[in-house]
């Protein structure tokens, strides 16, 4: 933005972050957990005790011990190392997918919500059609058609999430289109484009942040689910969904650790993102400033 | 009342363009296959000759619009292609396996609504009490649950550790015979046949997968019920009703709950989308012989006609479910057909 | 004196909130005789509505009666069981509410909602409930009650909804009716109809009533006695005419002063110490804005909707013109076209001789005249971007429409704040951190930032308390003189328009039904609609008050 608001803002933004974190202990926990996952993704692969791909038939299916904190899988690979190393891939998939759908959805939603008319009708038809599929099933279809790769998992996840953002932004923009402050912005000499981009759209950010946090969770679940049924990531790449799938075969014979730990990590990551929603919203909502 | 009839008619008519879109997307998905679609549809074992035969049979040598016309024509004749895996028409396979999926999905939804709706209502009425906190924890934890993982955990606890559940393999233990087919739902068919033993056996098989799916759908329904009840309870008309001396029962059920049902019914559409997707995962975990596990097997075997048939069937099923939801919404809400939309 | 029907003794109500306990009502006492009508008057946050909920014990979650007692016909309402209270609510004491549409269950037929109450209190059986509900609808003078029985609230107008709410309240012949801002949000002629109906029904049934309102004039017209509330306390009670004519408490005096009434000028709305002489504004004979055959037609679902049907008028340089009418009369559409946010379907808008109506609204943002025509919006909260500070908001037109930069722009923003009486220390606040009056000042400062020649004021005080309205109206009058602006003042309130405007235009159904000098239109209205509007405005007892107000000096 060329017209940056008053200069005191970066200072007050930091103060606001501290305030939001202090105000709500749940938010603090969520942000701490998130920091843990981000760190795991960034430096985890360099710190893990074992090579996540190294097999050792002699040490297959060993329960958790001091040497192997989360035990070993059927090929004798260290489950702990694999769980930590998998963080990077799972986070990358979800963040990339959500970022894609956020940007595309925001633009399409703002167009439909502000200009309405034909744009609105056509875009709504497209979103209706996408939403007419059970989303996971559509993702399956897309990955099956485009090819079994990690990038295609990202695209598929992004496509099924676009309607959520677009609809949200459309509604938020639409109710503010005739608001006094939007008209005042036009009287102040702003073009329609500037009014949407700099005056109306930022007001849609708080609910979008809640959506982002939920979507990050869904995106991970979605990607893990696709891997679970054998799409996308392929063995022996460490990925939480695949690891649960591999572990599921041993659960009926009591080797619980192979599936439990990747599953727990997956749950914890989704849980973290879901918890972050309110905190993220408060961060971008000036009304929460006192 | 004419406005309502017109609105309902319009709503039913609206499914047509959506169905068209669904067919178009699934057509595009088949044609977006990397490489030669004919090779895919002919199956992995096909030689050059049968690939060529498939190409001509599917009209893949023609232009895209022509191919689409052929595709739609085939659909109208109920021809979804032939599965490489089973060697039978995909439509036959799907029709045979659909009751298993529906029985699982519907019993899971029923179970989940029976728990989630009262829980949400209770949490809203006793806002801030332990019920409310329990509801909030369940809701946040619930949306974080990967169904395939919960399924695996439940198997470990109830089958391996406690031994309460039968082995997680299909709809019925092999020592029982399936009941004579009427509806395709084992629970109903066994009751119709008066066979209590088979009924309980089927129920035991169904318990874990249904619970897995129900746990997953509990969260959105309870969350929406709670929020809708809170909104309804803080509405002005509730104050009017209280000021007029109506009993708390009447205020709660006659006034607040009926209004709160509207957003809950809307949410059910989204829940159906989740549950049909999660169904695939749960069927794989429990080896449930529904259309989900059929699709997974087909995916692994690169049996694309089967996969596309499955995607299309799911979409059509979902469109119909959404239509039913909207129609039932119109039954509750008298405003449909008047205020704008 | 008649025996007391209701007596309230030292009643205190507080709410538990996240920031601790908030005392909404702080020990108030009053009594109500049989057949009496009491008005409880106060501005927002005075605790007047909470008082009424406390009487019926229908406080929102977190609210409790701390101390005091409420006795109704010998029954201690605070000690009564919840079951006992249910028998009293609706049968002995009833209530009607503001925002009547929301006060009705949206998905239940209005007839059934009346039946619910009748059945609850044993006034009707399954067999005769329908007949009795229809009679209740007929009692509130709803036409064709049999057909309305099957209506849902969304099918009825606001005034009609309020009649249904009254029908519910009176269905079981209660002895006391509490009306909580019953006409807020209704048009002024509807307001009069609803208030007259309520008064007639109360009189006919020999009931008592409590009218809770922010409008001192309304309360004075319809009530026998008034109680004035401020910050949870009753500061003054007395006979309605006495309170209005001889307020004893300084707050009441301020409230009485601020209420627009015939015979008072702008400055008379302010407290005595703030009444500096009003410098008259100069009006030239040169036209600034000429509107010729202005028309707006929308394409609706069932054919074209004629919002504005070819109107003509002129605003002279320096003049203030009032545009008056009820909701749906086309006044907002007209102002949107004049301010060039909306394109007219036909007609010319000549500004200084140039037809600005021919420039598409989409392109007017870049027109040099953009800064010359500005607008103050109706709802100050809605018209300020929640994400922008007051400084950003006021500076926005400067940034887009002038060449002012950096320090010059900051200085100009601070100058504008000073002109509108906004303390410079508040400039870095967000809208939610400002009071209603402060937000109104920000909106005005933004509108005058580019030195406009024509300012369109769209009900700029409709959402404000009267004491703040008084200040804002005076501020507008001063700015007009100082900056030589012309005003188009859009309003539904003739009493307010009279204060600020030289000329008045009355609109109805998209047409101008009457126009002329303010005094002439007000004092000798020619058109029946104008007369109806004037007749519907509350008429507070205009007992002449000595300008020195001797009893106020004593306090």
From TrEMBL, chain A:
Domain ABC transmembrane type-1: 87-277
Keywords noted in UniProt: Cell membrane, Membrane, Peptide transport, Protein transport, Transmembrane, Transmembrane helix, Transport
A Pfam family it matches: BPD_transp_1
Cross-referenced PROSITE patterns: ABC_TM1 (PS50928)
Membrane topology summary: Multi-pass membrane protein
TM stretches of this protein: 26-48, 91-114, 126-147, 216-234, 254-277
UniProt KW Nucleotide-binding keyword: no
Primary location class: membrane
Superkingdom of source: Bacteria
GO biological process: peptide transport; protein transport; transmembrane transport
Localization per Swiss-Prot or TrEMBL: Cell membrane
A single cellular component GO annotation: plasma membrane
InterPro entries for this protein: BP-dependent_transpt_permease, MetI-like, MetI-like_sf, OppC_N
PANTHER family, sorted: D,D-DIPEPTIDE TRANSPORT SYSTEM PERMEASE PROTEIN DDPC-RELATED, OLIGOPEPTIDE TRANSPORT SYSTEM PERMEASE PROTEIN APPC
Annotated family: Belongs to the binding-protein-dependent transport system permease family.
Name recorded for this polypeptide: Peptide ABC transporter permease
UniProt organism field: Meridianimarinicoccus roseus
From TrEMBL, chain B:
Entry-linked InterPro entries: BPD_transp_1_N, MetI-like, MetI-like_sf
Family: Belongs to the binding-protein-dependent transport system permease family.
A GO cellular-component term linked to this record: plasma membrane
PROSITE patterns (alphabetical): ABC_TM1 (PS50928)
PANTHER family assigned: DIPEPTIDE TRANSPORT SYSTEM PERMEASE PROTEIN DPPB-RELATED
Single GO term (MF): dipeptide transmembrane transporter activity
Compartments in which it is found: Cell membrane
Transmembrane regions listed in the UniProt entry: 12-33, 104-125, 137-162, 199-219, 260-282, 310-332
Membrane topology: Multi-pass membrane protein
The protein's name: Peptide ABC transporter permease
Top-rank taxon: Bacteria
Keywords assigned by UniProt, alphabetized: Cell membrane, Membrane, Transmembrane, Transmembrane helix, Transport
ABC transmembrane type-1 domain boundaries: 98-329
UniProt-listed Pfam families: BPD_transp_1 (PF00528), BPD_transp_1_N (PF19300)
């Amino acid at each position: 933005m060329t017209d940056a608001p008053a200069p005191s803002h970066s200072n007050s933004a930091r103060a606001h972050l501290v305030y939001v974190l202090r105000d709500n202990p749940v938010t603090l926990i969520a942000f701490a957990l998130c920091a843990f996952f981000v760190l795991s993704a960034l430096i985890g692969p360099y710190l893990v005790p074992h090579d996540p791909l190294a097999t050792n038939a002699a040490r297959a299916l060993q329960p958790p011990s001091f040497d192997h904190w989360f035990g070993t899988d059927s090929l004798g690979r260290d489950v702990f190392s694999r769980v930590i190393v998998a963080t990077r891939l799972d986070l990358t998939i979800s963040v990339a997918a959500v970022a894609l759908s956020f940007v595309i959805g925001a633009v399409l939603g703002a167009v439909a919500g502000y200009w309405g008319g034909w744009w609105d009708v056509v875009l709504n038809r497209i979103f209706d059609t996408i939403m007419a599929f059970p989303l996971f099933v559509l993702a399956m279809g897309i990955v099956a058609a485009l090819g079994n790769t990690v990038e295609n998992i990202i695209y598929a996840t992004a496509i099924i999430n676009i309607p959520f953002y677009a609809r949200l932004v459309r509604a938020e923009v639409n109710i503010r289109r005739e608001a006094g402050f939007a008209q005042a912005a036009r009287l102040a000499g702003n073009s329609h484009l500037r009014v949407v981009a700099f005056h109306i759209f930022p007001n849609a950010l708080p609910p979008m942040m809640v959506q982002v946090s939920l979507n990050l969770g869904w995106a991970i679940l979605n990607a893990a689910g696709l891997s679970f049924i054998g799409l996308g990531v392929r063995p022996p790449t460490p990925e939480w969904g695949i690891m649960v799938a591999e572990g599921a075969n041993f659960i009926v014979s009591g080797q619980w650790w192979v599936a439990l730990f990747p599953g727990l990590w997956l749950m914890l990551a989704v849980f973290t993102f879901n918890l972050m929603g309110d905190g993220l919203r408060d961060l971008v909502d000036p009304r929460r400033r006192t | 009342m004419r406005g309502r009839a017109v609105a309902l008619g319009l709503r039913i008519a609206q499914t047509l363009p959506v169905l068209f879109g669904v067919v178009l997307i699934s057509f595009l998905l088949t044609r977006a296959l990397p490489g030669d679609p004919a090779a895919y549809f002919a199956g992995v074992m096909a030689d050059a000759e049968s690939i060529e035969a498939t190409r001509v049979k599917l009209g893949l040598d023609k232009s895209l619009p022509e191919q689409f016309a052929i595709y739609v024509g085939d659909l109208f004749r109920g021809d979804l292609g032939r599965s490489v895996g089973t060697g039978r028409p995909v439509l036959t396979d799907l029709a045979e396996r659909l009751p298993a999926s529906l029985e699982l999905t519907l019993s899971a939804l029923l179970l989940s609504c029976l728990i989630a709706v009262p829980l949400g209502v209770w949490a809203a009425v006793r806002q801030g009490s332990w019920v409310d906190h329990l509801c909030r924890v369940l809701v946040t934890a619930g949306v974080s649950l990967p169904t395939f993982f919960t399924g695996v955990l439940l198997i470990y606890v109830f089958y391996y550790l406690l031994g309460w559940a039968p082995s997680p393999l299909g709809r019925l233990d092999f020592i029982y015979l399936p009941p004579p087919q009427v509806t395709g739902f084992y629970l109903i068919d066994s009751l119709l046949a008066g066979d209590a033993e088979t009924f309980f056996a089927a129920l035991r098989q169904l318990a874990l997968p249904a619970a897995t799916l129900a746990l997953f759908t509990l969260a959105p329904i309870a969350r929406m019920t709670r929020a809708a009840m809170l909104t309804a309870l803080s509405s002005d008309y509730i104050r009017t009703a209280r000021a007029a001396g109506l009993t708390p029962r009447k205020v709660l059920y006659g006034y607040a709950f009926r209004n709160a049902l509207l957003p809950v019914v809307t949410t059910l559409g989204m829940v159906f989308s989740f549950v049909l997707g999660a169904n695939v995962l749960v069927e794989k975990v429990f080896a449930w012989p529904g259309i989900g596990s059929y699709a997974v097997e087909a995916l692994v075997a690169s049996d694309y006609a089967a996969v596309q048939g499955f995607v299309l069937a799911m979409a059509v099923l979902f469109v119909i479910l959404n239509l039913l939801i909207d129609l039932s919404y119109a039954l509750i809400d008298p405003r449909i057909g008047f205020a704008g939309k | 004196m008649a025996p007391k029907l209701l007596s309230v003794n030292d009643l205190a109500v507080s709410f538990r909130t996240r920031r601790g306990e908030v005392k909404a009502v702080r020990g108030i006492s009053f009594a109500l005789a049989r057949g009496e009508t009491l008005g409880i008057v106060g501005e927002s946050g005075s605790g007047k509505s909470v008082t009424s909920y406390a009487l019926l014990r229908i406080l929102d979650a977190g609210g409790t009666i701390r101390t005091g007692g409420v006795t109704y016909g010998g029954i201690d309402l605070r000690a009564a069981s919840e079951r006992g209270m249910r028998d009293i609510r609706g049968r002995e004491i009833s209530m009607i509410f503001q925002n009547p549409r929301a006060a009705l269950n949206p998905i239940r037929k209005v007839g059934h909602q009346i039946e619910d109450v009748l059945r609850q209190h044993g006034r009707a059986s399954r067999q005769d409930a329908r007949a009795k509900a229809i009679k209740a609808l007929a009692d509130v003078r709803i036409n064709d009650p049999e057909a309305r029985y099957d209506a849902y609230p969304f099918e009825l107008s606001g005034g009609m909804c309020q009649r249904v709410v009254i029908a519910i309240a009176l269905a079981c012949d209660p002895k006391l009716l509490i009306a909580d801002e019953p006409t807020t949000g209704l048009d002024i002629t509807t307001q009069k109809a609803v208030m007259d109906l309520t008064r007639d029904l109360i009189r006919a049934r020999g009931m008592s009533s409590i009218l809770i309102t922010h409008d001192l004039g309304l309360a004075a017209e319809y009530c026998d006695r008034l109680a004035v509330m401020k910050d949870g306390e009753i500061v003054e009670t007395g006979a309605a005419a006495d309170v209005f004519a001889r307020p004893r408490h300084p707050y009441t005096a301020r409230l009485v002063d601020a209420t627009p009434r015939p015979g008072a000028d702008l400055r008379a709305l302010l407290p005595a110490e703030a009444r500096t002489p009003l410098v008259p504004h100069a009006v030239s004979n040169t036209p600034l804005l000429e509107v010729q055959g202005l028309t707006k037609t929308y394409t609706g679902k069932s054919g074209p909707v004629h919002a504005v049907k070819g109107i003509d008028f002129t605003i002279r340089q320096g003049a203030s013109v009032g545009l008056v009418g009820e909701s749906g009369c086309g006044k907002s559409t007209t102002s949107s076209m004049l301010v060039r946010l909306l394109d007219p379907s036909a007609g010319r808008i000549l500004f200084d001789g140039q037809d600005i109506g021919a420039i598409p609204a989409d392109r007017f943002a870049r027109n040099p005249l953009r800064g010359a025509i500005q607008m103050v919006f109706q709802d100050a909260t809605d018209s300020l971007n929640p994400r922008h500070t007051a400084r950003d908001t006021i500076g926005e037109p400067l940034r887009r429409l002038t060449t002012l930069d950096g320090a010059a722009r900051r200085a100009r923003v601070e100058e504008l704040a000073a002109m509108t009486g906004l303390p410079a220390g508040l400039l870095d606040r967000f809208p939610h951190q400002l009071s209603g009056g402060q937000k109104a000042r920000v909106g005005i400062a933004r509108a005058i930032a580019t030195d406009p020649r024509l300012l369109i004021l769209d009900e700029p005080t409709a959402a404000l308390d009267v004491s703040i309205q008084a200040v804002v109206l005076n501020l507008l009058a001063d700015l007009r003189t100082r900056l030589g602006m012309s005003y188009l003042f859009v309003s539904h309130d003739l009493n307010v328009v009279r204060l600020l405007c030289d000329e008045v235009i009355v609109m109805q159904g998209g047409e101008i039904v009457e126009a002329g000098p303010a005094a002439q239109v007000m004092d000798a209205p020619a058109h029946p609609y104008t007369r109806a509007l004037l007749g519907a405005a509350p008429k507070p007892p205009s007992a002449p008050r000595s300008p020195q107000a001797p009893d106020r000096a004593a306090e």
